[in-house]
């Protein structure tokens, strides 16, 4: 069983829709990450939260909006996405930023119509 | 910037045999961490093994072991007694020991296990 839980597992949305991805961990980790992964490629970092504050934004378009309501929960709000945004979105957490291994969730498979 | 190279896009192994996946990296740092992650078709990225650069002893986790050659900047993964469940994409990853947060991944090696 994964210790990082992501919902939903699959999401299909139109380009005008607004949806959110959710990630939850109860390991007491203080750093949480969003990655985007295209088929047969390694994950690409999008955002990093450390102690519930956004620390890193890897120049991600504003149609992706992260939110960290508390230390256990990480959301990714989606609006006006493009077909090229179709991908697997992975959430990860680590004890703190850097040094510690990151633990990943199962991901959300996102398809944009 | 650090780079991670996995030169084998695909590998195959017979069940119960041993296979070695290659990984090389380029860095000017002395303090860093290396990881192997496994991603089966179920898609979860699973941490297989980790190695701290300051440790000379090679890490081992059950059937998985690494051959860490710091001078050669090489970090290969050996899977012994391969099982069908080992079939997956394997990613080698580098993490700076400084304040850097960013995992640098290789392109991955797709491992097939034949019964």
Alpha-beta content class of chain B:
mainly beta
Tally of DSSP β-strands of chain A = 11
Low-confidence region ranges of chain B? none
Q: Beta-sheet strand percentage of chain B?
A: over 45%
What proportion of the residues of chain B is helical, as a percent range? under 10%
> What's the pLDDT, averaged over the residues of chain A?
93
Order of helices and strands of chain A: EEEEEEEEEEE
**Shape assignment of chain B:** globular
Helix and strand content put the structural class of chain A at mainly beta
Biggest β-sheet of chain B, characterized?
Answer: 6 strands, mixed
Total E-strand runs of chain B: 12
Strand content of chain A: over 45%
Q: What shape does the CA trace of chain A take? A: globular
Write up this protein:
The complex is a heterodimer of chains A (113) and B (115). Helices cover 0% and strands 57% of the residues of chain A. In chain A, a hairpin with an 8-residue loop joins strand 9 and strand 10. The termini of chain A are far apart. By secondary structure, chain A is mainly beta. Chain A is globular, with a radius of gyration of 13 Å. Chain B is mainly β. Chain B starts with a strand and ends with a strand. Chain B has strands at 3-5, 10-14, 19-21, 24-26, 32-39, 46-52, 60-61, 64-69, 74-79, 88-96, 103-105, 109-114. In chain B, strands 2, 5, 6, 10, 11 and 12 form a six-stranded mixed β-sheet that branches. In chain B, strands 3-9-8-7 form a four-stranded antiparallel β-sheet, with no helix packed on it.
Outline the secondary-structure elements.
The complex is a heterodimer of chains A (113) and B (115).
Chain A: E1 4-7, E2 10-13, E3 18-25, E4 31-37, E5 44-50, E6 53-57, E7 64-70, E8 73-79, E9 87-94, E10 103-104, E11 108-112
Parallel strand pairs in A: 2-11
Antiparallel strand pairs in A: 1-3, 3-8, 4-5, 4-9, 5-6, 7-8, 9-10, 9-11
Chain B: E1 3-5, E2 10-14, E3 19-21, E4 24-26, E5 32-39, E6 46-52, E7 60-61, E8 64-69, E9 74-79, E10 88-96, E11 103-105, E12 109-114
Parallel strand pairs in B: 2-12
Antiparallel strand pairs in B: 1-4, 3-9, 5-6, 5-10, 7-8, 8-9, 10-11, 10-12
């Amino acid at each position: 069983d994964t210790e990082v839980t992501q919902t939903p597992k699959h999401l299909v949305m139109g380009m005008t829709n607004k949806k959110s991805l959710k990630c939850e961990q109860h390991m007491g980790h203080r750093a949480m990450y969003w990655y985007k992964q295209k088929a047969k490629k390694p994950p690409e970092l999008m955002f990093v939260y450390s102690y519930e504050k956004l620390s890193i934004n890897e120049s991600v378009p504003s149609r992706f909006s992260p939110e960290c309501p508390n230390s256990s929960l990480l959301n990714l709000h989606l609006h006006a996405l493009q077909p090229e945004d179709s991908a697997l979105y992975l959430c990860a957490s680590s004890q703190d930023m850097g040094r510690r291994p990151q633990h990943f969730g199962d991901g959300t498979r996102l398809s944009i119509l | 910037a650090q780079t991670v190279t996995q030169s084998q896009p695909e590998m195959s192994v017979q069940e119960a045999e041993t296979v070695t996946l290659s990984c090389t990296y380029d860095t000017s740092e002395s303090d860093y961490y290396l990881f192997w992650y496994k991603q089966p078709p179920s898609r979860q990225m699973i941490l297989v093994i980790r190695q701290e650069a300051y440790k000379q002893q090679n890490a081992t986790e059950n059937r998985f072991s690494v051959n860490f050659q710091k001078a050669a900047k090489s970090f290969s993964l050996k899977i012994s007694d391969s099982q069908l469940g080992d079939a997956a994409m394997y990613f080698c990853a580098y993490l700076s020991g400084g304040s850097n947060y960013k995992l640098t991944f290789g392109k991955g090696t797709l491992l097939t296990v034949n019964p």
